[in-house]
């Protein structure tokens, strides 16, 4: 007893010392990290005094925590680019106090740059290059060695047999650093810099821009040109050069320490050779700079910089960086955007709204999940209730006015954003201001937009609420009441084929009949196809599907959960009825007929049918392009279904591929284990061989599954593109023979939906380019359709 008590007491006495010994360094490291990450945020002291104090703290901790400090500084250079001048100044102060540390930091940054390029982290690599260039201003890096590095970057444009996107990135990395360091480099190395810019100009003149129309949010160049990003940046840098490299927006805290920094010894960058191109390199795709506002749109307060002023680039770049750093925390992100340094010199709300919509509408896809932008804008409206909602309303009005020339994919995102936004503000909107859409054809962009927005609002609310919130004059655009259309209801004609059988089938379902019993009952349903085609009469009976599915859906119409349960319960019956391709198509037709007034129910049930393998992805694609769906072909929900179907197919292939890769890794590990130390070598070898044999069999099976899934995936894209080509060709021929202009609303929608398929699934489609080119997108194809394919190919050239 006494022994135990003694040990307890000694433990209690010694524990705190033990903990303090192990945790003290960790506490200091955490404190260092916190100090470094928070410098430059709101403080009672000035930024300069905070930087000087922090440099002193870090200098004192260098002997014990040098590696940790290096790691943190390299991380913030990569991950907090919006505070770049703050951290370059801090590194400058440390270099002035400890030359060796400065050298080690530069080496660590170069190592990190090489790693990010190898790992295809190109956006982070841009920030690292920019950081290194700003270190020239802080007298850490010698200007000639920075110019030499830029020359190596630009030399990539002379490489042969490389994709254009590779050269683009290296040119962008140089140009986007010049607002920070251009003045300093020109003062020290003007001849070399002129030569460098001439090389860049030559490259920009010869690069091809076939891809640009595919990436533009608006097809019209007025009121704001939609410029390709490198062309826009080049114009901004040219203007900066003309203004003698004077810009008025970048925070430059190092100026306050000029007397200290100019005394510091500088480091030369080690020679940097860009890593050679490899086939698995994934370069950033080009993009078009989104423009929605200019100085005339923000009449009060500070003037908005022009689209070709470098200040516009710097502001937008910093706002993008803030979103990139904080997008997971909408409240922090909104607060950081609104406390942007220098906000009193610019119409900040206009810049923020333009940047957020620029990201939301970015093609092929936004950098972050769509719903994040809605949440962020709501948060901004809460923080600035007196000013930001007005700017947002102005932006919405502008986009509504320009719907005629807006890309269909962007219209989809606008519908999703606007309906979600309205749902957070009691669906309040000045609908009467949009009364001009009521006099237009329902298929025109404006009435179509309002109709789709109201339909999405109904998904987030209920039908009567939508009826109540819009003026009575908008009744034509209000979505239908989402009730089912039961073909064999009480008011139906009793002479309808199969009418009598629905009662029998309905009773059987109510009496909890088994799948086998239902199939026996359905045998009595006559087959309208039997006389026409005896061979297929037994396999495909459209009336059987109609009678059973209409009855089943009617009994389960109360909710999606009831419908899911019904489909699960009678899975075997449905699989039997949809044994053929015609059966799969017909089940989708019946589902559409039953729920034609409830697009959301159609979407979720089609999804369920694919998941339960009652229909396959190709059947869904064929159904969407079938004549029966022509009436709804341009509706938003149809394309939601198609994209969801493609994504499901892609995920299926990825899942099997992952299983195969894991099995291969397992086998490799098993083979490496074949080095027994004990005497039971024979037993171990036998067990090992058995396991290897099982793994090899598993790999073989998975290999077959992957090939089968990829074949199905390729077939799905072939079906989709073939159907697009058929529809568009018919339209073009019809217009040509009638002497009508091809550019109808339907044609714009259809051709842009084709572009959307290419853009949204570009990574997968690139695997099948050869097949597409040989079978579908041949030289004989009409140039209107072929152009879309050529624009897509140009994206990664």
From TrEMBL:
Per the record, the major location class is: cytoplasm
Q: Give start-end positions of Acidic residues composition bias.
A: 678-697
Name where it's found: Cytoplasm; Nucleus
| Basic and acidic residues composition-biased segments | 667-677
Q: Which Gene3D superfamilies match?
A: 1.25.40.180
**Chain spans, region Disordered:** 1-25, 667-702
Any idea where the MIF4G domain is? 29-241
Q: Which UniProt keywords apply?
A: Coiled coil, Cytoplasm, mRNA capping, mRNA processing, mRNA splicing, mRNA transport, Nonsense-mediated mRNA decay, Nucleus, RNA-mediated gene silencing, Translation regulation, Transport
Leader peptide range in chain numbering: none
Which GO molecular function terms does the record list? mRNA binding; RNA cap binding
One GO CC annotation: nucleus
A single BP term in Gene Ontology: regulatory ncRNA-mediated gene silencing
Family annotation (InterPro entries): ARM-type_fold, CBP80, MIF4G-like_typ-1, MIF4G-like_typ-2, MIF4G-like_typ-3
The organism's place on the tree of life at top rank: Eukaryota
The UniProt similarity line reads: Belongs to the NCBP1 family.
Report the protein name in the record. Answer: Nuclear cap-binding protein subunit 1-like
Q: What is the lineage of its organism?
A: Eukaryota, Metazoa, Chordata, Craniata, Vertebrata
